Amino acid sequence: xxxxxxxxxxxxxxxxxxxxxxxxxxxxxxxxxxxxxxxxxxxxxxxxxxxxxxxxxxxxxxxxxxxxxxxxxxxxxxxxxxxxxxxxxxxxxxxxxxxxxxxxxxxxxxxxxxxxxxxxxxxxxxxxxxxxxxxxxxxxxxxxxxxxxxxxxxxxxxxxxxxxxxxxxxxxx
Length: 173
Fold this sequence. Notes:
Blueprint: E1 7-22, E2 29-45, E3 51-67, E4 70-87, E5 92-109, E6 111-112, E7 116-131, E8 134-136, E9 139-141, E10 146-162, E11 168-172
Antiparallel strand pairs: 1-2, 2-3, 3-4, 4-5, 5-7, 6-7, 7-10, 8-9, 10-11
């Protein structure tokens, strides 16, 4: 027999943040702030009526410092997720929770001008997630904690040029 593994997924959410200290980091100086957000994702599986829902709230603090062409950016974030899986054919309804926290630190330099620039940068990011276990269908599911550490290094090259009296073309690779 053929099994339809298709699904439809809908998601919506938003993120908002406020600078709560410092000045503008665009012309030098420091700025820091807070951010919060919400994300909802619903996945419906074709042919079975099974459904998988995740709702996540997050909170973050961030900061940026710029002096001349040098910059440092940092972010620390925490997510709390509520997960529900429903299976019509297997007759189960599972609810569990997950926590994710981590941070990212980036440093670099902007060399050149607004017309043409090169921006070498390095970053390191760490994330840790844990999902609460749950029991269903006569068994128990327990998840290992997930950890990730990622480093990046690269160069962004770009610039800007006027294309009319009030328009500007900005480009980068």
